[in-house]
Amino acid sequence: MEDYPRTLAEFEDRFGTEQACRDYLVALRWPGGFRCPLCGHDACWVVGKLFECSKCGHQTSVTAGTIFQDTRKPLRQWFRAAWYVTSQKNGASALGMQRILGLGGYLTAWSWLHKLRRAMVRPGRDCLNGEIEVDEAYLGGMEEGVYGRQTFKKALIVVAAERDGTRIGRIRMRRVPDASAASLHAFIHAHVQPGSTVHTDAWQGYCGLEGYTHKVVALRGQRELASQRLPRVHRVISLLKRWVLGTHQGAVSPAHLDYYLDEFTFRFNRRASHYRGKLFYRLLQQAVATDPAPYKQLNQHVRAGPEHPKPYL
Q: Is 46 buried (19+), middle (13-18) or exposed (0-12) by CB count in 10 A?
């Protein structure tokens, strides 16, 4: 059963103490009751803030192995940060979080935001299905001396958007190293259910797509027609660029772009939620299932993966 505060007043009343926050995390992490992370046993003794497995004796806390691990700040501060991030329609900047929550330094706010962003994508989430529009786009400023899809500085992203009647359904997006068939096909296979209908332009990188009904939208060399023939995916791309320029003033580090894309996807796919508290609930639910991310790890370069195996910006 989904359990979350509907309003700011409810949030303040419910999470006014450390124990209330801790109890909420326990319910989210072990909804069916305690499970030892070492042996899987379901019985334990409570020793202060620790849970000791009655079978193997392993001790753990509700924050161990989550994004909250080793935090020196109260959980109440973390809960306020999660509420602030999810209650802002267009997202939050590190500077804004620092000011609102009264955090000691900018780096604290910056690292908290990036830890929360890492919890915005649920592993094993459902693939898109049905009618899907797919296209690529570049993020970055003006660049001279390049032609077509060539770039030296910009980040290339590929976006998929479900057709939900005349509206946009769920979306997926990911940065890719290039517009080759290997990169584009890998994205589609990872995020679109086999058997779906995929609509793309006539770019050669989409040729030979197997396992899907592939429909090519001919633009006849007129890229301006793309927003008419593939309206949903281009609407998403336009909103993404506006979000990066508006909320983040265009100051998105290439090294962390993947996680900004995750945040945009998280927000967009939940844009119809009646209560912002539901986003808060989902974020904390995924936060207790996300591995810790120390500052040194946050400060490293792009996330490794088959779609972008090494930094390229």
A: exposed
Q: Going by DSSP bridges, is the β-strand pair 50-53/44-47 parallel, antiparallel, or unpaired?
A: antiparallel
Of all helices (H) and strands (E), which one includes residue 276?
Answer: helix 276-287
Residue pair 120/149 in contact by the 8 Å Cβ criterion: no
- Residues belonging to the chain: 313
Q: Which two tokens stand for residue 214?
A: 């592939």
Calpha distance 207→216 (Å, rounded): 9
- Summarize the confidence of residues 173-195 as an average pLDDT: 95
Mean pLDDT, residues 207-220 taken together: 88
Query: Quick one: which of 53, 78, 51 has its CA closest to 67?
Result: 78
The percentage of the chain sitting over the pLDDT mark of 90, rounded to a whole number, equals 59
CATH topology of domain 131-255: Nucleotidyltransferase; domain 5 (3.30.420)
The 10s digit of each residue's pLDDT in 241-272 is 988 887 776 667 777 888 889 999 999 998 88
Extents of the domains making up the chain: 1-22+75-118+273-313, 131-255
Residue 11 in tokens: 């949030």
Angle made by CA atoms 70, 71, 73, in degrees to the nearest 5: 155
Average pLDDT, the chain: 86
Q: pLDDT per residue over 101-152, tens digit each?
A: 998 888 889 899 999 999 998 877 889 999 999 999 988 755 454 455 555 5
208 alpha-carbon distance from chain centroid: 30
pLDDT of residue 224: 60
Q: Please give the pLDDT value at position 307.
A: 43
Residue with tokens 């706010």: 109
**Burial state string for 64-92 with b = 16 or more CB within 10 A and e = fewer than 16:** ebbbbeeeeeebebbbbbbbbbbbbeebb
Residue 203 tokens, joined: 């770019």
Q: Using the structure block, give the residue that is written with the tokens 């996807």.
A: 265
Q: Which of 202, 130, 195 is nearest to 162 (CA)?
A: 130
